[in-house]
C-alpha cells in the first residue's frame, strides 16, 4: 500500500519547512482555481510531507482571499490523508499566554459568507457531520508532540473564526469572551470544513501571539506584536511537526476517511456529469 502523505498548511510566519529531503516544488491547477502557491513535497523523518503556505510565499492573500477549495483539492490530489494546520491566534483567556500552543477541538463561525467553504452545490447536495470538526486522533498526536518538545500546550479549546482582515473591536472581543471561546483567528474554519468533505483528517497547532484587545494590562493586538511572537516560536511549531509526523505514518483508525458515506442527498441519476467530473477526485465513488 502507498505510504500515507501528511499535509502541512503554514499560516502567518510559517512560509517554509526546514529539514526536508528529496524536495520538489509542484504547481497544480484545480477545478477550483489555483492554490495559494506551489506545493513543496519532500520527506521528513522518512515520512512523505506536502507543505503549502496558506497566504502564499510573501504573504499575498487576505484570509478571505485564500483559495481554500483549491488548496484542499490539491492536497487530496497529492495523496494527503492528514492535514496539520499551523496558525497564529489571539488568546481570549488569561491562562493562554502569548507563546503558548493550543490544540483546538471546536470552531465557531463569525465569517461573513465571503468564502467558498464547500465542495457541494451545482447539482449535488451533501451534509457532512461536523459536531467534532477536527480529527481527535490527529489532535492527540499534535498535543503529545507539543508536550514532548517542551511547549506550554492547552488541549482542546474553541477557535472563533472572524472574517478580518481587521482585528476585532473591543466590544466584539469582550462579547466573544463572554461566549467562552479560547482563541481567535481568521482562517481555519473553511479549511476544516473542506478537509472533512474531502475525507482528510484536520488538526490545528495554534500559536497564541497576543491577547487580542480585551486585556487591560496588555497592548492591543498589532501585526508587529504577532510577528515578534511568531519569530520567537516558529522553531517550536517546526519541532512539533517533526515529532508528530513519525507517529502519523500508519493507517488511520478514525472516521474521517468515511465522512461522505451517508452525506450525499441527491439522487445519483440527477447529478450533472460536469459536477461529477469536477468532484471525481474528491468523492467520485460516492457520486456514481
Ligand atoms: C498576522 S495576524 C492575522 C492573521 O494571522 C492568522 O493567520 P493564519 O491562521 O494563517 O496563521 C490570522 O488568521 C490572520 O489571518
Ligand atoms: N487577535 C487576533 N485576531 C484574529 N486573528 C489573529 N491572529 C493572531 N492574533 C489574532
UniProtKB/TrEMBL annotation:
<dbReference type="GO" id="GO:0019509">
    <property type="term" value="P:L-methionine salvage from methylthioadenosine"/>
</dbReference>
<feature type="binding site">
    <location>
        <begin position="54"/>
        <end position="55"/>
    </location>
    <ligand>
        <name>phosphate</name>
    </ligand>
</feature>
<dbReference type="Pfam" id="PF01048">
    <property type="entry name" value="PNP_UDP_1"/>
</dbReference>
<feature type="site" description="Important for substrate specificity">
    <location>
        <position position="223"/>
    </location>
</feature>
<comment type="similarity">
    <text>Belongs to the PNP/MTAP phosphorylase family. MTAP subfamily.</text>
</comment>
<comment type="subunit">
    <text>Homohexamer. Dimer of a homotrimer.</text>
</comment>
<keyword id="KW-0808">Transferase</keyword>
<feature type="binding site">
    <location>
        <begin position="87"/>
        <end position="88"/>
    </location>
    <ligand>
        <name>phosphate</name>
    </ligand>
</feature>
<protein>
    <recommendedName>
        <fullName>S-methyl-5'-thioadenosine phosphorylase</fullName>
        <ecNumber>2.4.2.28</ecNumber>
    </recommendedName>
</protein>
<keyword id="KW-0660">Purine salvage</keyword>
<keyword id="KW-0328">Glycosyltransferase</keyword>
<feature type="site" description="Important for substrate specificity">
    <location>
        <position position="168"/>
    </location>
</feature>
<feature type="binding site">
    <location>
        <position position="12"/>
    </location>
    <ligand>
        <name>phosphate</name>
    </ligand>
</feature>
<dbReference type="InterPro" id="IPR035994">
    <property type="entry name" value="Nucleoside_phosphorylase_sf"/>
</dbReference>
<dbReference type="GO" id="GO:0005829">
    <property type="term" value="C:cytosol"/>
</dbReference>
<dbReference type="GO" id="GO:0017061">
    <property type="term" value="F:S-methyl-5-thioadenosine phosphorylase activity"/>
</dbReference>
<dbReference type="InterPro" id="IPR000845">
    <property type="entry name" value="Nucleoside_phosphorylase_d"/>
</dbReference>
<dbReference type="GO" id="GO:0006166">
    <property type="term" value="P:purine ribonucleoside salvage"/>
</dbReference>
<feature type="binding site">
    <location>
        <position position="186"/>
    </location>
    <ligand>
        <name>substrate</name>
    </ligand>
</feature>
<feature type="binding site">
    <location>
        <position position="187"/>
    </location>
    <ligand>
        <name>phosphate</name>
    </ligand>
</feature>
<feature type="binding site">
    <location>
        <begin position="210"/>
        <end position="212"/>
    </location>
    <ligand>
        <name>substrate</name>
    </ligand>
</feature>
<comment type="function">
    <text>Catalyzes the reversible phosphorylation of S-methyl-5'-thioadenosine (MTA) to adenine and 5-methylthioribose-1-phosphate. Involved in the breakdown of MTA, a major by-product of polyamine biosynthesis. Responsible for the first step in the methionine salvage pathway after MTA has been generated from S-adenosylmethionine. Has broad substrate specificity with 6-aminopurine nucleosides as preferred substrates.</text>
</comment>
<comment type="pathway">
    <text>Amino-acid biosynthesis; L-methionine biosynthesis via salvage pathway; S-methyl-5-thio-alpha-D-ribose 1-phosphate from S-methyl-5'-thioadenosine (phosphorylase route): step 1/1.</text>
</comment>
<dbReference type="InterPro" id="IPR010044">
    <property type="entry name" value="MTAP"/>
</dbReference>
<feature type="domain" description="Nucleoside phosphorylase">
    <location>
        <begin position="6"/>
        <end position="245"/>
    </location>
</feature>
Amino acid at each position: 500500500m502507498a505510504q500515507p502523505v501528511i499535509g502541512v498548511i503554514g499560516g502567518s510566519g510559517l512560509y517554509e519547512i526546514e529539514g526536508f529531503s528529496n524536495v520538489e516544488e509542484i504547481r497544480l491547477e484545480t477545478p477550483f482555481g489555483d492554490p495559494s502557491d506551489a506545493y513543496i513535497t519532500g520527506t521528513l523523518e522518512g515520512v512523505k510531507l506536502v507543505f503549502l503556505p496558506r497566504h502564499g510565499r510573501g504573504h499575498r492573500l487576505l484570509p478571505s482571499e485564500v483559495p481554500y477549495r483549491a488548496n484542499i483539492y490539491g492536497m487530496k490530489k497529492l495523496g494527503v490523508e492528514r492535514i496539520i494546520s499551523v496558525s497564529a491566534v489571539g488568546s481570549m483567556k488569561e491562562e493562554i499566554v502569548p507563546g503558548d500552543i493550543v490544540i483546538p477541538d471546536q470552531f465557531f463561525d463569525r465569517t461573513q459568507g465571503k468564502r467558498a467553504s464547500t465542495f457541494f452545490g451545482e447539482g449535488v447536495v451533501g451534509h457532512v457531520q461536523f459536531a467534532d470538526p477536527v480529527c481527535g486522533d490527529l489532535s492527540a498526536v499534535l498535543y503529545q508532540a507539543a508536550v514532548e518538545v517542551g511547549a506550554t500546550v492547552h488541549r482542546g479549546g474553541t477557535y472563533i473564526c472572524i472574517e478580518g482582515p481587521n482585528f476585532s473591536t473591543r466590544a466584539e472581543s469582550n462579547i466573544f469572551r463572554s461566549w467562552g471561546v479560547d482563541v481567535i483567528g481568521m482562517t481555519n474554519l473553511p479549511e476544516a470544513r473542506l478537509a472533512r468533505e474531502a475525507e482528510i483528517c484536520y488538526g490545528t497547532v495554534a500559536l497564541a501571539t497576543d491577547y487580542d484587545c480585551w486585556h487591560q494590562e496588555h497592548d492591543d493586538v498589532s501585526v508587529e506584536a504577532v510577528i515578534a511572537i511568531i519569530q520567537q516560536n516558529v522553531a517550536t511549531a517546526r519541532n512539533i511537526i517533526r515529532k508528530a509526523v513519525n507517529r502519523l505514518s500508519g493507517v488511520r483508525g478514525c472516521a474521517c476517511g468515511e465522512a461522505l458515506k451517508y452525506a450525499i442527498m441527491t439522487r445519483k441519476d440527477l447529478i450533472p456529469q460536469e459536477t461529477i467530473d469536477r468532484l471525481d477526485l474528491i468523492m467520485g465513488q460516492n457520486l456514481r
